[in-house]
Amino acid sequence: MTIHLVDIHHTTHTCPANPDPHPVDTRRTVLAVIDGGPCQTPITIHCGNTTAQVPCGRHEPRERQCGACRTIVTEHTITSTHHHEVAA
Q: What CA–CA distance (Å, rounded) separates 4 from 2?
């Protein structure tokens, strides 16, 4: 399985139009990608007189993908910054 390790940072603020804190920006930083390796169960595709094999991760839904094609995103750190806006 391919694993993506990410950091997430949310920026929120409050303003006169909406006094509840709400998100204005979300940044994701990819820290590492660990490759799952080659597909273990490629799928044969037929198109006219041509056949080709593609990785199951490009064709099958997640529950039918092999372990090498399945992707997992792991959140390493989630941080947030809050900004207050004042009415003029």
A: 7
